[in-house]
Specification:
The chain is an all-alpha fold. The longest helix is centred in the last third of the chain and has 54 residues, at 230-283. It has helices at residues 12-25, 27-58, 64-94, 100-108, 111-139, 145-163, 167-173, 178-188, 193-228, 230-283, 315-320, and strands spanning 333-335, 341-343. Mean pLDDT is 77; it is low at 323-332, 345-350 and 367-371. The protein has a two-stranded antiparallel sheet. The chain has one domain. Helix 2 (27-58) runs antiparallel to helix 3 (64-94), helix 3 crosses helix 10 and helix 5 runs antiparallel to helix 7. It is globular and about 110 Å long. Helices cover 67% and strands 2% of the residues. The chain is built from eleven helices and two strands, in the order αααααααααααββ.
């Protein structure tokens, strides 16, 4: 890509303003989704609390097995529900006229590919985390490298998340499969990698700082009532714990609309860049055109070999033509005393055959009527 033909990306200020605009536009959807998740989380806490009481009363270690099974089922259900809500948010960003229910219904049509894409991205992050964690552990033996290794791991994970942030929009909007969506997301940021990653990381850091600040405020609000009364502290702890969880979840969702929007925005920029480059080289033929990837050419099938067709000669045509023009076949061929091929309808002379009698020759060939 010619750098002089590349469209500029939106500035930091425009990026942050757009993220706030999209958040306000879809805040009802985000609050409804977070409220459902927080409500489910509270119910799960109550259920597991009851299981804990039962285990303590029965003192039966096997009583924990149903709780573990329920925990596994709940985790799978929350994962599927999260995929459904995120798919609905993607549809609402690109189709703002859809309501909450309509957006979820539209996103559910590609539920399984979306779920596969999220699982695949999660596995990639897990693998990078494991490998990076091992490298950090090895670097502990070198005190100087340990902090840099930890910072490098965090940066690598942020960079990976920025490159894979468009998997879900690629699946839902462009109809890609999970594997194709990863490649599409990776290539979409190719020409604007550092511009996009820089804005992405800065906004992530801002949101993270706000979340940490809210957590500290929540801790102080819980500690003050606890100093007055343990019961009051427990009540306020539950209330503020729910509110903090609610606020943290909203902050997590804050990044989703802008990431979803940037997929279409960067694709439009890439298309404009390609059009600008094509127009530039069309209007400036003296400029060398950058090499384009060669498309594989399908091998051409060889033309079938058609044997020559001997034309059929009728009786009347044979009578009117010179006997040398009559087609000769191997059935008419004989071998001369000199070892050369001869045909029955070849004219002979005294030089060719000593027994040749010119008086016995007819002006026209004689045919056997029985043939």
């Amino acid at each position: 890509m010619n750098p002089f033909l590349k469209q500029p990306m939106m500035s930091f200020g425009e990026y942050f303003a757009k993220s706030w605009e999209l958040f306000k536009k879809h805040v009802k959807y985000i609050i409804a989704s977070v409220a459902i998740f927080v409500g489910i989380g509270v119910l799960i806490g109550l259920v597991f609390g009851l299981f804990g009481i039962v285990i303590a009363m029965t003192r039966n270690p096997l009583a924990i097995l149903p709780m573990l099974l329920l925990y596994f089922i709940v985790i799978l259900g929350l994962f599927a529900l999260s995929t459904l809500f995120m798919s609905g948010l993607v549809m609402q960003v690109y189709y703002p006229e859809l309501s909450f229910g309509q957006a979820i219904k539209a996103g559910s049509k590609r539920f399984w590919p979306a779920l596969g894409g999220i699982v695949l991205v999660g596995l990639i992050n897990f693998g990078v985390g494991i490998v990076g964690g091992l490298l950090v552990m090895l670097s502990v033996f070198t005190i100087i490298l340990a902090p840099f290794a930890a910072i490098g791991l965090q940066f690598a994970i942020l960079l990976l998340n920025a490159k894979l942030a468009f998997v879900l929009p690629a699946i839902l909007i462009d109809g890609k499969g999970p594997g194709e969506a990863i490649g599409e997301s990776w290539n979409t940021t190719k020409d604007y990698l550092w511009q996009y990653v820089g804005r992405f990381i800065v906004l992530e850091l801002i949101i993270g700082a706000i979340a940490v600040g809210i957590s500290f405020i929540g801790v102080f609000l819980i500690l003050i009532p606890a100093l007055i009364s343990p019961v009051l502290g427990a009540i306020f702890g539950i209330i503020f714990g729910i509110l903090i969880s609610f606020g943290a979840a909203i902050l997590v969702y804050y990044m989703l609309p802008i990431n979803i929007y940037m997929y279409g925005y960067l694709k439009d920029l890439n298309n404009q860049n390609q059009a600008n480059q094509a127009n530039y080289y069309a209007n400036n033929p003296q400029q060398p055109v950058p090499p384009q990837p060669q498309q594989p050419v399908a091998p051409q099938a060889a033309a079938p070999v058609v044997p020559p067709v001997t034309p059929e000669v009728t009786r009347e045509e044979a009578v009117n033509m010179n006997t040398n023009d009559i087609p000769k076949t191997h059935e008419d061929m004989t071998i001369s005393p000199e070892g050369e091929p001869m045909f029955e309808n070849d004219f002979q002379t005294e030089e060719d055959d000593p027994e040749f009698d010119a008086d016995t020759m007819h002006d026209e060939p004689v045919y056997d009527e029985e043939k």
